[in-house]
Design a protein that fits this description.
Blueprint: H1 3-25, H2 32-46, E1 53-54, E2 57-58, H3 65-77, H4 82-106, H5 113-123, H6 125-130, H7 137-155, H8 160-176, H9 181-189, H10 191-194, H11 196-200, H12 202-231, H13 233-249, H14 260-268, H15 276-283, H16 291-309, H17 321-332, H18 341-365, H19 383-394, H20 399-425, H21 428-439, E3 444-446, H22 455-458, E4 465-466, H23 472-478, E5 483-488, H24 491-503, E6 510-514, E7 517-523, H25 524-529
Parallel strand pairs: 3-4, 3-5
Antiparallel strand pairs: 1-2, 5-7, 6-7
Helix pairs in contact: 1-4, 1-5, 1-20, 2-3, 3-4, 4-5, 4-7, 5-17, 5-20, 7-8, 7-9, 8-12, 9-16, 12-13, 16-17, 18-19, 18-20, 19-20
C-alpha cells in the first residue's frame, strides 16, 4: 500500500486494533455496560420494544435507540454479548468518516485536512477510551456530527443537508435525549457567521432550520408519546421533562465545579496537549477569516460552555467536541505531517515515563491480594509503550506516528490488567449461580440498589428483590429457601465473613470480587441463623 492510502486509512486500523484488544481483555463493565445490556435483554425477553425496563420496572434514564440497535443484531445473529459492544464503536468510526466529508467541503483545496483530523481524534485519549465502550455517547457524537455536516451541506446548496439535520435531531433525541442539541444546533443557528448562503438569505435559512427541527422532533415524539402513555405518569414525567430539567438543574450524582473540564482538558487531549506543533498552530496568525474554523468554533464552544456550567460533569459529556477540535487543529497545522525531534520530545518522554513508571508500579504492587484489579497483572506489557516512546525520540514522526505510539499505552494497560479485569469486573460467575437459583424457583434478594449487573450475564428472566442490609435478616427468615447477594466494602471483610460462615457450617453459594468490593451470595438460612455474616455489608 502506498504512503497516501496508509495515511488516509491507517486510523481505521488503529480503531480496529484498540477495539479488538478491549473486547478480548475486558468484560462488560459494571455498572454502565452491564446495565445497558440488562435493559436490552429485558426488553427482548418481555417482547416490549416501546418502554425499556430494568429489573421489572420502566427504565427512564435513556431512550431506546441503542437498545433497538442491539435487538437488530440479536434478530440476525442470536442473543450475544459481542454485537452490542460493537455498536457504539461503529458509530465512533462513522463519526470520523463524516469528518472526512466535512473537511472535503470546507477545505477542498487541502485534501490532507480530513485524514489528519481523523488521526488527531482517534489518537486523543478521551476518544480512544470511550470509542471502545458500550455507552450512548458515541451515538451522540455521530448524530451531532451528522447535524453539523447537514448544515454544511445545506450551506453548499444541497437540500439533502436539511434532511440530515432532521435525522440528526430526531435520532439524536432517541439516542440520548436533548444532549445532542447542544452540539448539533449551534452551528446552524450561527450559520450567518460562517456560511455565505445563510448570510445572504437568513430568512430562508432559518425557515429551513425550523422545518428540520420540527421534523426531527416529530420523529422522536413518534416514540416518546406512545411510550409515555404506555409507561405510566411517572415514566412520562421522567422521559418528557426529568431528563432535561433534572440534568441541567441538579444533573444527578455528578456535581463538580465549573472549572473541572478545564483542569482535565490536558489529560483528555493527550498526547496533543503535549505536542509543540499543536500549540504553535493555535498561536500562528491566520491570513483572514476561515469559514471552516468559524464553523468548528460554533460547533465546539457553545457545547463546552454549556456543559461547563451544568453542575453534573463526566468526561464523556464533552466527547462530541473532539471531532470539532480535531478538525480545527488539522486545518491550522501546516504541511502534510509535521514532526521533528523537538516537536515529539514532550509526548515521547511522557509516554516513556508513563510506560516505564506504570510497569515499575505494577511490579511493586501486583502481589497486593486486596486489589482485585491488580491480581495477576502482567507489567511487562507496559514496556511496549515505553519502547514506543523511545522510538519516537529516536525517529520522530507526525500525527499518525504519535497517535499510534500513544495508542499502545491504552492497549498495553488492557493487556497488563486483563486477569484483574476478569476477576474484578466479570459478572458471569456470580450470574451463573443466580441463574441456577432462578431455575430452581428460589427467591433472590439484592442487598443494595440493583443496576442490572447480573441480568444479561445470567440471562435472568425474573427481577431480583432489592433489600437493604438492615432488613436482610428479616427477609432471610421470611424466605428460608432463598438467597441474598451481599456486598462488603472490602474484599478482606468479605473473606473474613466467608471464613466465619464456613466455620459455622454456613458456606456461601458464591464468593468473589465486584469492582472494589467483596461479593458473597449467601443462602437465606445462613443469614437467618448467623446474622453476623452480614455485619459491615454495604451497597454502592
Amino acid at each position: 500500500m502506498s504512503a497516501a492510502p496508509t495515511w488516509r486509512l491507517g486510523w481505521v486500523a488503529l480503531w480496529a486494533a484498540l477495539l479488538a484488544v478491549a473486547l478480548w481483555t475486558r468484560p462488560p463493565l459494571p455498572l454502565d455496560e452491564t446495565r445497558y445490556l440488562a435493559v436490552a435483554w429485558e426488553m427482548w425477553v418481555r417482547g416490549d420494544f416501546l418502554v425499556p425496563h430494568l429489573n421489572g420496572a420502566p427504565y427512564s434514564h435513556k431512550p431506546p435507540l441503542l437498545f433497538w440497535l442491539m435487538h437488530a443484531g440479536w434478530a440476525l445473529a442470536g442473543v450475544n454479548a459481542w454485537w452490542p459492544r460493537l455498536v457504539p464503536p461503529l458509530f465512533a468510526l462513522a463519526s470520523l468518516l463524516l469528518v472526512l466529508r466535512m473537511a472535503r467541503l470546507l477545505w477542498p483545496e487541502r485534501p490532507e485536512v480530513g485524514p489528519r483530523a481523523a488521526w488527531l481524534a482517534a489518537g486523543a485519549l478521551l476518544w480512544a477510551v470511550y470509542a471502545t465502550l458500550l455507552m450512548f455517547d458515541p451515538l451522540v457524537v455521530f448524530f451531532a456530527t451528522l447535524g453539523v455536516l447537514g448544515a454544511v451541506e445545506a450551506a453548499c446548496g444541497r437540500r439533502a443537508g436539511w434532511v440530515a439535520v432532521a435525522l440528526a435531531v430526531g435520532l439524536g433525541l432517541l439516542a440520548k435525549g436533548p444532549a445532542v442539541l447542544a452540539w448539533a444546533l449551534p452551528p446552524a443557528l450561527l450559520a450567518p457567521w460562517w456560511a455565505e448562503a445563510a448570510r445572504r438569505r437568513p430568512g430562508r435559512w432559518y425557515a429551513a432550520l425550523a422545518a428540520a427541527l420540527a421534523a426531527g422532533t416529530a420523529l422522536a415524539a413518534a416514540w416518546a408519546l406512545p411510550a409515555a402513555a404506555a409507561g405510566g405518569p411517572e415514566y412520562a414525567r421522567a422521559i418528557l421533562w426529568g431528563q432535561t430539567a433534572g440534568r441541567v438543574v441538579d444533573s444527578f450524582a455528578h456535581g463538580r465545579p465549573w472549572w473541572w473540564y478545564l483542569a482535565w482538558a490536558p489529560v483528555f487531549l493527550l498526547p496533543w496537549s503535549l505536542w509543540a506543533p499543536a500549540w504553535a498552530a493555535w498561536r500562528r496568525r491566520g491570513t483572514g477569516p476561515d469559514r471552516g474554523l468559524r464553523l468548528c468554533a460554533a460547533w465546539a464552544l457553545p457545547g463546552l460552555v454549556l456543559f461547563t456550567f451544568v453542575s453534573g460533569k463526566q468526561p464523556h459529556y464533552v466527547l462530541p467536541a473532539v471531532p470539532a477540535l480535531a478538525l480545527a487543529l488539522a486545518a491550522r497545522l501546516d504541511g502534510h505531517a509535521p514532526g521533528g525531534r523537538r516537536a515529539a520530545a514532550a509526548p515521547a518522554l511522557a509516554l516513556l515515563a508513563l510506560g516505564a513508571g506504570l510497569a515499575a508500579w505494577l511490579w511493586g504492587t501486583a502481589t497486593d491480594a486486596g486489589a482485585a484489579l491488580l491480581a495477576g497483572a502482567r507489567p511487562a506489557w507496559l514496556l511496549l509503550p515505553a519502547a514506543a516512546g523511545l522510538a519516537l525520540l529516536a525517529r520522530p514522526g507526525g500525527v499518525a506516528a504519535l497517535a499510534t505510539a500513544w495508542a499502545t499505552l491504552l492497549a498495553a494497560l488492557h493487556l497488563a490488567l486483563a486477569p484483574g479485569l476478569a476477576l474484578a469486573y466479570d459478572t458471569r460467575p456470580a450470574a451463573r449461580v443466580l441463574a441456577r437459583l432462578e431455575a430452581e424457583g428460589r427467591p433472590v434478594a439484592h442487598a443494595a440498589k440493583y443496576h442490572g449487573q447480573f441480568h444479561f450475564a445470567g440471562r435472568l428472566r425474573r427481577p431480583l428483590e432489592p433489600v437493604l442490609a438492615p432488613g436482610l435478616a428479616a427477609w432471610a427468615r421470611a424466605h428460608p429457601e432463598g438467597a441474598a447477594v451481599v456486598y462488603y466494602p472490602t474484599p478482606a471483610l468479605a473473606r473474613r465473613r466467608v471464613a466465619e460462615g464456613r466455620a459455622a457450617g454456613a458456606a456461601p453459594l458464591f464468593a468473589g470480587a465486584f469492582r472494589g468490593d467483596g461479593l458473597v451470595i449467601w443462602p437465606a438460612r445462613a443469614i437467618a441463623a448467623h446474622p453476623r455474616l452480614i455485619e459491615g455489608a454495604a451497597g454502592f
